[in-house]
Amino acid sequence: MATLAVGIDVGTSSVKAVALKRTGSGYALKSVGQADIRRSEFHPEESPQAIAEAPLRALERVSQDSSFAKKPCAFAVSGPRVAPRLFKFPSIPKGEVEQAIRFEAEQIIPFDLAQAALDFVLFDEAMEEGKPVMEGLVVAVHKEEVDKRYVLLKSAGFDPVVLDIDTLALANAYAETEGMNERETVALINIGARFTNLSILHGPRRTFVRDIATGGDMLSRAISEIYGLDLPQAEKRKREAQYTPLDDLEGGGMGDDFGGGGGATEGFGDTEGFEPIDEGNEEYVLLDSDQTGFEAGDTMTDADSFEASGQTQSGMDAAQRISANRAVLADALGDLISEIQDTFKYYINRRIIPRVDKVRLCGGTAKFPDIQEFFAGQLGVPTELWNPFARIDVGGVAGKYPPNFLDELGPMMAVATGLAMRQL
After folding, report:
1. pLDDT above 90 covers what percent of the chain?
2. Number of domains observed in the structure of the chain
3. Which residues lie below 8 Å from residue 7, measured CB to CB, with a gap of 6+?
4. Structural domain containing residue 87
């Protein structure tokens, strides 16, 4: 089967695109693109028409890269009009499976199947009380959602040929780049602006998925409430938090143009160079790695403990910064943590999985300082940032981008990467 080389992820706040080439040892990156989608919450100066057209304009900027335009691509949807459900029934002949799954779907899918695109995947056959049973995942997507996304992509110059859902694309990217062993359970958490995609991989052939209706927007709202900023300012401070502590508001952070020494770029497909974006254009921020010196498993101490242990003032400042970050995280993502905990308990209590061995975070919000330690502490599971580009050959294109650019961008690209790895 041929590898589908292009994946297009249309999110709430940005469009992400990845073009891959299959090699003998895995995958090589051909191109990557990203463009912000201007939203009314954070750009109140924009007209309603400009906001309505913002996703199309973002896609058009990405399609200027010849690696993406008019190439067969995979796309995905997520949210309330996507219904993935587990099913289980006694083992039956293969010729009867599709009809049985459709009957099962009619009982568990929350909207009329006549208005849905339906697909399914079977897990390995299992045994219950000495009898074989069939288990799997069935997914229904409302046709209006599919048609709307298809028309949007065609209007922007893409050739959409394969439909997926975000959570399964996420799982595909991890399985293809990291691999899975029979006894390992990994939870992938892709934190988008309005939705968080949760994929739980148990061994190489079992995947359980869920979309949770909360995400990085809640961080912006928490910063707005805690620091008395309007939403556009709070969104800006959220992006700047990687560079300057949240409490340091007097200095104005990195300034209105997000310069900060990292540079802002747009249209980074096949372009030869990078020009600073104009004031009115979409903003893109390169995020440098956090240098607080704290790692997963570290615990917070008060000022006296720092002095007693010989820590410097900079160490105390780092602790204060982490404290501020975690206060925002707790306020903003408490509901998300509860939903994830409940999902873990559901599968563990029903003995569908034995435990969750590790958590991997991705998405733009996963770059927020101290979020890995926050999730590890709340979930009680080792948590790390996941960059799918770390296992992909990027040598052929690395020279087109600034140093560390692909490392910083990678965690945002997990869904698009999984889509580009789809097979025809």
Report:
1. 62
2. 1
3. 17, 18, 20, 73, 74, 75, 169, 415, 416, 417, 418, 419, 420, 421, 422
4. 82-136
pTM, entire model? 0.81
pLDDT exceeds 80 at position 12: yes
Q: What is the pLDDT of residue 293?
A: 32
Element (H, E) at 173: helix 166-177
Does residue 179 belong to any structural domain of this protein?
A: no
| Cα–Cα distance, 218 to 202 (Å, whole number) | 30
Neighbours of 378 (CB within 10 A): 19
Band of the pLDDT at 322, cuts 50, 70, 90?
low
121: CATH: 3.30.1490
Whether 119 maps to a domain, the answer reads yes
Closest CA to 18 of 424, 417, 418: 417
Q: What pLDDT digit, counting tens, does each position of 159-200 carry? A: 999 999 999 999 999 999 999 888 899 999 999 999 999 999
Mean pLDDT of the chain: 82
Q: Could you give phi then psi for residue 26, rounded to 5 degrees?
A: 150, -115
Tell me if 409 is assigned to some domain.
no
Structure tokens at 351: 């003995």
Sorted by sequence, the CB contacts under 8 Å of residue 238 that are 6+ apart come out as 216, 219, 220, 223, 368
CA nearest 189: which of 333, 347, 41, 20?
A: 333
